[in-house]
Structures are given as structure tokens and as C-alpha cells.
Amino acid sequence: MSSLRRGWRALTWYVTGVLGESDYQRYVAHLRRVHPDAAVPTVGEFWRDRYAAQDADPGARCC
Amino acid sequence: MRSPEHVELVRNNPDLPPVAVIDRRPMTTSKKLIFAAIGVVAAVAWALVAFVRGESVNGAYFVVAAVGTYVVAYRFYARLIEYKVVRPRDDRATPGEEHENGRDFAPTDRRVLFGHHFAAIAGAGPLVGPVLAAQMGYLPGTIWIIIGAVLAGCVQDYLVLWLSTRRRGRSLGQMIRDEMGSIGGAAGLIGVFVIMIIILAVLALVVVNALAESPWGVFSVGMTIPIALFMGVYLRYIRPGRVSEVSIIGVVLLVLAIVAGGWVADTPWGAETFTLEPVTVAWLIVGYGFLASVLPVWLLLAPRDYLSTFMKVGTIILLAVGVIVAQPAVQAPAISSFAVEGNGPAFAGSLFPFLFITIACGALSGFHALISSGTTPKLVEKESQLRLIGYGGMLTESFVAIMALVTAISIDQHLYFTMNAPATLTGGEPGSAADYVNGLGLAGPPVTGEEIQSAADGVGEESIISRTGGAPTLAFGMSQILGSFLGGASMQAFWYHFAIMFEALFILTTVDAGTRVARFMLSDTLGNLGGPLKKFRDPSWRVGAWICSIVVCGLWGAILLMGVTDPLGGINTLFPLFGIANQLLAAMALALVTVVVVKKGYLRWAWIPAVPLLWDLAVTMTASYQKIFSPEPSLGYWAQHNAFREARAAGETSFGTAADPAAMDAVIRNTFLQGTLSIIFAVLVLVVALVALWVCVKAIRAGGLPTTEEPDARSATFAPSGLIPTDAEKEVAAQWAAYYEENPDKLRTGTHA
User: Fold this and answer.
1) Residues 299-318, chain B: which have Cβ within 8 Å of A?
2) Maximum alpha-carbon separation in chain B
3) Residue A16: per-residue pLDDT
4) Is the pLDDT of residue B747 over 80?
5) Do B281 and B541 meet the contact criterion of CB atoms below 8 Å apart?
6) Least CB-CB distance to A17: which of B109, B240, B242?
7) pLDDT tens-digit readout, B511-539
8) Which residues of B touch A31 (CB under 8 A)?
């Protein structure tokens, strides 16, 4: 059972990593470590900023 | 740890655990035996592919030969490149570590980054090119996809990734300017822009050919737009940040859309509403491209990208399982007569150089250089991981291409050419198409018109005749392979439209993002011209964005419409241009890499990028030469142009495949444009190649020159290099885990798991 749970956790860790879902946690952890005084954005704010940044500088997708 | 005397642990700070493991231990005997066994199995599979003939060639041999070769190449050739050229230094901080901001610069676990990078490089290209190249038989395509990837494509991806990682993630164009001066830089910039336009046009043409006259396809692909809009709104207002949740909902809706497409296409109103002419589909796609490039990212582009990633990985796994389980028998010959005589219906030209042009993605794709510079270098944790991400990522794409090839060559040869010959040859009717393909002298029993029609009925399409572009052929092959063990004949139509759906999804995602990127390049270039145009530099200036989007969509839209209405068959004339463009971009990237390697003084190892560069130049320059100067009208754009002009001047009202004067004018116009583009591409790349040669000579005379590599910054983290950590790496990782346990405030986000 525990190996099943570990497998599930590894899978969700991987999928959320590749899709970028875990980027919010990563950003918050980064802020807490490097800029402990900075205000931490909410999930909604983080994604708004992120899409705004993508609007300004899109990444290429390949053929 | 085994023989620790050969393992060096590098520390940057005596208070911290080591930041790098330099492992000089020789291979263990058991490992040597394993690699020898893999080598032998791969060699046997290659021998079976190369020498066995007829229906007894099994599709699974190709998979074994490919995977075996990849393992050996990754372990030995990529390692050689690593030792001699890349010389990774894990005590050096990567841009992600040095400039970490938690957003675009963020050290990311190597396995996650591998998935990320692969999703960015792989699209419809490796699925389409091999399918078209199958007209030359299976052997040349197989050799080029596997060997080309190992010696050229992976080398390019790996080394461009290395250059960009050592330069704070700078883009390809910028690096060309920095290392080769402003002339090379300008040629590079224009080249990238023109190439982007042609790639967008040809990919859109593939979608048009897959969706025209197919109500099922139009409905289900059209439904992806409301699905993406729904996902965008959901992510913004209902549950922000729940990307995987919304992606799963999206995929379920997508499958429903495919099923519903079958119902809709069965109703009279559905068939009437969604059966569209090719020109209508083309205009819809141009309009879509424009809207997608001016709408906010969160609404359409980002959710499509999530769907595309999910479908990409899922479908590729499905296809791999399908080929291994179904083990389809190969129907194509090893080398067809078209390869020798150069008169194939899917695309003109003989084996050299046109096979190597047609299969660009999957073997050597210049477009990857744009991905390998920019995004990925800002996310990598350690320089030694570049081999896994750059070289390994491209090997995976090559594997996708091999499966696409296996799918195409396991289709009945008569049906394959029915689908891939232009309508002017097949006549568009089952009877005439059967007559045409039976006259080609193909292996296997001749086909009848009824058989062609029943093949179309089997996949739920009105017709499969002259559905050029590769996507319908791949979908047809996939429906046979997957139908053979998942759902049988009744599911064939579903699998066909499933395949059409994911190809269209990939391509439309590329079209969205590509239009946006090209628009930015255009506004940047205009802004840099100065004067009143300076305003274009401001990305938030909506009017400027609209103008540039219209220009970009107009450019690729014009080429797309030209291809759609071309009496000679759009894919037949435009696909070579696409391949040449992509490979020329690769020539620019490889020229840059060669220049840097020579500047750094690694002259002895300059052949590693120089051999693929010379090969690529030989291929692209021969192809360009033939396209420009060949007196054969089916091959040379100008020969065709002049033939039609003379016929027109002589007062003829029909000529060749053009039935009326308007069609003749279309050919005259199209060949002029294609010929001109060929000349522009060739000149741009020659400029870059000559500048590269000149810089190399200067560097050799001076005994090396400084490069624009960023100065060293000392790393303060650790991460394993390969997919599976070694025992030495595990020990160091354990030291870091203990250190973070004591100092939880120091824990970096990239170092988890």
C-alpha cells in the first residue's frame, strides 16, 4: 500500500512539475528563502503575473 | 562506494557538502557485458531490417534497432562529446542557480526538465516527415532518422544548449551576433524570421489537408477552441493554478468531442455545416492564428498548451505500445524506384538530397536550436545534466519519428500512394485512383476502387484519395495498428480521428505560439530601426501588436493559400521548402557551435559539430541548387515557372496539371515565389557559413579567441547528472539532505526529491 502511495506521489510530483503547476510553490519557497520580507502573492496573483509575462515574451514551440 | 580513489568530490565552500562529483571510475565488468549485449541485439535488429525482405520484416525490429543504437550512442558518443567539447563543470553555477528568481530562472529537477524540454521540441514535425519519406522505402528513412539523430540532431541540440547555458540563456540569434559579428547576426535574424513564416505556412497546410472535406475532423478540432477557452476561464476565475486538474477535464472533453464528431458527421445538418472546402479551412486557420496571437495568453494559448502536452505524451506512449504489441508487418519495399528515379508522387527529387530534406524533425531539426537557447538553459541545475536533456531529449524525438515511419510503412502500398499522390494524378475518384496506383508497379495485389472506398468508410471519412500532407496517412496507419488490439474494426474511425485531432492540436499550438514569436521578432526589429518606429518596441502597445500580427499572419497565410490552391499539389511543392528552411536553421546553429569550439581552442574535436554541419550544408545546398537550377520542371521551381510562362505566352489555355489559364497563372506566381524563397534561404545561410569560416580561420591563426561565455560563478548546490544517480552521487545527496535538515532555511526548491 505504501509503495502504491509513493508511486502516486511520484507521479503527481512529475506531472505537476512538467505542466508547471508546482511553480507556484517553488516561487513561494524562493521568496521565503531569499526575500523573507517580501509579500507572498496568492495563487491567482501568481498565475496572472505569469501569463502577463508570457504575453510579453512568448516561448517558441517546435514543429 | 566502489573504488573511491577514482572519485573526486569538489567543494566550493568548506562549510558546505561537495557541489560536484568527478567520477573517473572505469566501467564495471557487468556493465560492460550489458552494453555489449545491447550492442549485439541492436546489430542483429539492424541486420534484420537491412537484409530481410518481404512481408516477414516485422515493425518491432525497427524499434529494437533504434533503442539499442540510442543506448549505445548515449553512453559512448554523447559521453565523448561531454569529455572533449562540453567539459561540464558542476562547481560552476548554472544561470538558473546564479540568477534564480523563482520564475524564468529556476533550477528544475532534471527529470522534470527533460519532460519539459521534450514537450517543447516535439510536435507534428517528426510525425509528418517520415510518413512522406516512406515513399522512398523504409531503409533510407530508418538509417537517416537513427544515425542522423545520433551524429547530427542530438549533437546540435546538446551543444546549442551548452552554449546558451554558459551565456545566461541567450537566444540563438543573439549568440550568432555575439560570436560572429553583426553581418552574420543580421543574416541569422532574417533567416530565423523567414524560416518561421514558411514553417507556419507548411504546418498549417498539413492541417488544412487533414480537415478539408472532413466534417468529423472539423467538428472535433473546432471544439478544441471552446474547450481551451473554458479551461482558460476555469484556471483564471474558478480554480487558479489547478493545471493538472483542468488538463484532465480538458482531455476528457476532447475525447468526448472526438466521439461527438462521429455523431455530428452522421447527421445531414452536421455533414452540411462542417464539410468545408480547403480554401475555407485555410482562411479559418489564418483567422484563428491572428486571434490567438492577439488574445491574452491565459485565455487560449496556455490552456491549449496543457492539452497539447498531455495528448503528446499520451499518444506517443500509445503508439509505442501499439507498435510493440501489434508488431505490424512492413508493406513498403526497402528502397523504392522513386528513391532512385526521383519521380515520387508525394514529393519530387531523388534520395540525395531530398530524403534528408523531407525528414528534418526527428533526425536534425534547426528549430530545436531556438528551444535549446532561451528557456531550458535557465532551468537546468547542473552543466553535467545537459547531456540527458539535450542529447537525450532529441533521441526521444528520433524515437517518435521511427514509430511514425513504422506506422507509414505498414500501410498497404496502394493505399499509401492513393493518399499521398496529388489529386491531379489520382483524379480524385476511387476508380481513377485505383487505375493510377495500379500503374505504379507496386508490390502486392492491385487495388480496386471499391477497396479504396471501403478503406475510407472504415475510418469514417468520405474519401481518402489525395489526402496529402502526412497527417491523414499517419492517422490511417495508427487506426489500423491501434484498432488491431484496441476495439477492432469498430474503433478504427475513432482512432483515426483521435490521431487527426492530436496532430491538429500540436500544429495549431505551434501556429499560435509561432505567430506570436514571429510578431515579437518583427516588432523588435522595427523598433530597433529607430525614428517613429521606436514605438514598436513597447510590447504593451496594442496597435503595434495588431499591425505586426496582421503582417505575420498575412505572410504565412499567403503562402498557405498559395499551397492550398496550387494546381501542382501544395505539399508536393511546399514541403521541400519547409525541410530546407528547417535544415538551414540547423546549419546556422551548427556553424555557431563550430565557431565557438574552434575559438575555445578545441580544434582537434571541431569535427564533432563540423561533420554534421558539412553534411547539412551539402544536403541543403544541393537541394537549393536543384530547386533553383534544375531543368526538370517537376523539380526546379524556375524550370516549372518558365515552362508555364512560355506555354502562356504561346497562347495555350491548359498546360500540364493546370486545366485553365487561371491555374496556369497560379503556377507561374507560386513557382516565382517559391524560387525566390529558395534563393533567399540559400544566400542567408551561405552568408552565415562564410562568416563562420572566416571567424574560424581567424581563431586558428590566433591560436584561439575569447568567446562571450559568462564568467564563472561558484555553485552552492548539488544534483545528480544522469537519470539514475550513481552510488557516489547518492552519498553526496545524502550529505546535502543532512545539511538541509540542520539548516532548513537554506533549502533550495530545485533540490527536492
Assistant:
1) 301-302, 305-306, 309
2) 89
3) 93
4) no
5) no
6) B109
7) 988 898 899 889 888 888 888 888 888 87
8) 102
